[in-house]
Amino acid sequence: MALINCTECNFEVSDKASACPRCGNPLMLNDKNDTTTLIEQTSKKLKLQRIYGAAAFISGILLAIGVNTILGIVVGVSGLIWMAVIDALVWWKHK
Ligand SMILES: [Zn+2]
Question: Is residue 46 very low, low, confident or very high in pLDDT (cuts 50, 70, 90)?
């Protein structure tokens, strides 16, 4: 933890604080860092979800060949739709 000076009143504020305790000036640097961290965490979650979608798609193909064609197609198409939804979410978060 470090101390930074408030841009409005020059009061020493913790860099973890979202606003100056003396004058209430929002500390934009911290807001920006928090947002960046949030986007990175969200991206990791979405990438994991995309892997689940790909796994469902591959499982669907294997099911269609080996077990039940209709069930395999349903699972495979669900996986494809799931991946498309995740791609749309990633695009939306990063636009
Ligand atoms: Zn201040």
Answer: confident
Q: Is 20 exposed, middle or buried (0-12, 13-18, 19+ CB in 10 A)?
A: buried
Q: Token digits for 36?
A: 């960046």
Where residue 1 falls among pLDDT bands split at 50, 70, 90? low
Å from CA of 27 to ligand 1 middle: 9
Instruction: Give residues whose Cβ lies within 5 Å of ion ligand 1.
Output: 6, 8-9, 11, 20, 22-23, 25
Q: Quick check: 46 and 93 in contact, CB under 8 A?
A: yes
CA of 30 to the centre of ligand 1 (A): 14
